[in-house]
Fold each of these.
Amino acid sequence: MAATRKEKDSLGFVEVPAERLYGAQTARAVENYPISGLRAHGELIRAFGLVKAAAAEANRELGLLDPERADAILTAAREVADGRWNDEFVVDVFQAGAGVSFHMNTNEVIANRANQILGGAPGEYTRVHPNDHVNYGQSTNDVFPTGMRVATLLALETLYPVLDALAGSFAHKAAEFDGIMKSGRTHMQDAVPIRLGQEFAAYGLAIHKGRGFLAVAADSLRDLGLGGSAVGTGINTHPEYRAQAVAALARLSGQALTPAADLRWAMQSNAGMGDVSAALRSLALEVIRISNDIRLLASGPNTGFAEIFLPSLQPGSSIMPGKINPVLPELVAMVGFQVVGNDTATALAVQAGQLELNVMMPTMAYNTLGSISILANALHQFDTRCIAGITANVSRCQEYSEKTVSLATALNPYIGYAQAAEIVKESVATGETIIALARKRKLLSEEEIAAILDPRRMTEPQLPLDAARERDSRPQA
């Protein structure tokens, strides 16, 4: 049998593993919530460590905690923020409402570590107590929403550079492929020519825009309700605690943070988490769309579009020799589906608050932080192991650009829509190209055909040639 120590909380005595820094309430939570086996995201642990450090610093400066006790709490809290004690955070992500158990897990770890720093042992709370000292002037109801918001802001700092790099890779490919003509497609049917580089430039802009929307949404997390205590009234807090604690948290986290103008609003509303989750969802939808396009463009090699080649990363079939699949576009699509699902769970949690508190915060934190992590990891792989290695099938693209029946669109200003449609019908029926039929019907001179039906010319806005203006200037019969 493993050695244990006996701790007492308000419900009675609990056996706690002797070597662990957590205490009685955490041990109860482990027994009560054996749900998923999933543990708190590292950024949530980091953020809670920073919140506790900021609170201890403010309470020390305001004379509410003696310097020796406060400094021990500060040291322990910074160790938590640095990830030193992540293994001590053992509460399942699916737990009772508001995250009380995770919060007390934090308080107990910091209290026991602070007692060690002061020469004591875990479970001896005579010098530093989880509730009386680590949690002085605080409540789960203001600490959890604060920690969740700060954790999200910190996690996003890992996603932004990935998005910037991916957008940059698409832009690089856009320049590389700028001279490659191909057929556009709308409704999955032939459309007018487009440059392969133009398609990739649009993908890059979509990622860039998604990053911008995400950053705007994240700004809604910067107004914090720390200091609101139990119901947003600030009970058991010093009048100056709120401002000092948030200022300390801003400095420690490196984030621009401000005290919320209304602490009741900050406790009742989690709309900011909904905004960020929705922005992640929108980004995921764009990623899914782009990944689908990449798979279509690379389909083949002999019976698909085959306009681009993806890096070969692994054998694609257990039975079909030589088959190579678009594994990373498939991966990011599945990650995107998960992010959409996470947003649904978060949205339901955001609307589920009652009166002074929304108790569904643990699921908001789990899903939003999870979405950020899987997007950052998947998009990094998508960028470095797929997009960066894409090459163009130039001959196939050129062939499609010349065969698309929508080349006839360029003839509209010169022969009219109806006559151009007749050429399209004949092209579909006979297999002859639009260029060949324009020559066959002798509707335009060879010079005009070469200029008007130049696929490159069709990929930018252009004034009609003089022939069209002359036709329109002739008197009507």
Amino acid sequence: MKRILRTGLAIALLLILLFAIYSIVPRVRYIETSYGQSLKKSDVLPPNFQDELRGFVRDTASRMQSAMILHEGNIIFEEGDTKKLINCHSARKSILSLLFGIAQDKGLLRLDETLAELGIDESKTPLTPQEKTATIRDLLMCKSGIFLAAEAEHDWAKNRRAQRGKYQAGEFFFYNNFDFNILGVILEQKTKMSIGEFMETYLAKPLGMQEFRAANVVYNSPWPVPRKTDSDHPVYWIYMSARDFAKIGVLINNKGKWGNKQVVSSNWLTESIHTQTLFSEEVANFYQPYDAFAYSWWLEKDTKTIWADGYGGQFLCIDSTNNLVVLQRNFTGNSLLSSGLFLRDKNRDNNPKSDLLHLYQRTLQQIVKAGL
């Protein structure tokens, strides 16, 4: 009997040890790329002003763990661990918009292709003929007219979902993960590459990203948890460092050009950041500070800024008028343990965009004051 108990205890301890090891294994491994290139730094901001910004970031450490500000493509402020790989969450959608631009530039797809033409459907909840008229362009604008549950959607999406068939494709804006998850499927179908492979080849390498690799794109939940919907189409997550994320903003300010290479056409950027939906006052209040939506980019009309926005405090603010890029990152986990600790944080949803707006507005004042 004692031998059985000892054996059982040994097995239990072994299982606990294996689970403990598994819980700390990173989902995405940090490996510097062979093609990475550092952004240049500039000291245009006075030291006392940088100290002011640094103090502000540290005071908001539970919401803004790293931050960067770039002017004319040069780093003028950097705080926190800007090398750490962090899930972009919904900011992935704006990055995917760039990938669609690159794919269109290469003649791999057309924005007017419909789901019917692409053969996109659902096995358990088949799409209707009306829903299949949605085009790639409709999906990029969040106007597919498809109101089905999707992987990784927020509770507020469930509460705001319209009745199926109520709106035609292109009629009604609904920020629905279904559209974005389908876009990932379409990109892979049309390019014959995974999202990570396409992004590494045609975005990360040309920009000299320092941490991004194809393996940084993870499908479904990063952890073995039950699926929450019957959708056939998986969610995908993009893990990036802050300094690689910053290069996305610089690329847009450079009108799609990096060095001597046109990575994505200026025509695509003009089209993709053009207002497609101007929000009503009620909707604008819900999505503050944004008042419009483009091809998977948020727009703030007063400041003429372009935003990528992700859960947990993943914000990228691009001011092309003043050639500024301001971003913040907040670590939401890269292992079962660190993800669990983030989810236990009562302040995890307290990531106001006002923090980044403060950095942006104070820096803009300083830039204008210095006549830069």
